[in-house]
Amino acid sequence: MSENTLYMGVDIGSASSKCVILDDALKIISHAVISAGTGTSGPRRAVDTALEAAETGIERLSCIIATGYGRNTYEHAAESVSELSCHAKGAVWLMPGVRTVIDIGGQDAKALSVDTNGKMKNFAMNDKCAAGTGRFLDVMARVLELSVDMLAEYDEKADGIVPVSSTCAVFAESEVISHLAKNVPVPNLIAGIHQSAAARAASLMKRIGVTEPVLMTGGVANNRGVVRALEKNLGIKVSTSPYSQIAGAIGAALFAHEKTVSGNL
Description:
CATH topology of the largest domain: Nucleotidyltransferase, domain 5
Mean pLDDT: 93
Strand order of the largest sheet: 3-2-1-4-5
Helix content: 25-40%
Low-confidence stretches: none
Distance between the termini: 25 Å
Radius of gyration: 19 Å
Order of helices and strands: EEEHEEHEEEHHHHEHEH
CATH architecture of the largest domain: 2-Layer Sandwich
Number of strands: 10
CATH superfamily of the largest domain: ATPase, nucleotide binding domain
Structural class: alpha/beta
CATH class of the largest domain: Alpha Beta
Shape: globular
Number of helices: 8
Number of domains: 2
């Protein structure tokens, strides 16, 4: 590839590691998502995969910024930046003009309010309970003996909703098992699971105030069932992006570019 200046963002979460490489035009050159987070080989594998896809080496990078739960564990980063700031910046890059961001990751959820200048002005986090997160959906899929990728497909076949009222992931698991014992239709049960996850996200968003347009980021944004349930709960459109899962890493790479341009390396 050409000898353009390159910038890397590494988002080390609790459940997965994401990496993004941008060029001088702030275009994504490569990216990677590895389903292994902090304390594992995930961050190294994500970086290696992105570098290989970009056909370059780590020595070519002008700056690396780390973010996420394990951001302080990545030794090659020039510095670390909070995931809140990175997700806000990444969301604005994905959807200029966005005003509200809901990020649902593997273990937590974050609602961000963005002002007209693209700066984060308020936030709310749910980091004490796995209910409504990617982990919640993983557990539900396991109970249903499905892959998590199949949940949205089953949701589309639902002709009703079986409510899952428990707000605790552990109790929700027991509730789902109880419903299965009663032979309720699985698609309707999955619709209820998605409705429960969406209700948690909507509650978080309402704490900071919901202003359109709204963008959903994080791995759960890939589940159209949850997105539809959230739209129904809020009564507004919730947008997603093919890059929703790597929004934090995009934001970190953008910070790496800013640090380079400002000369603060």
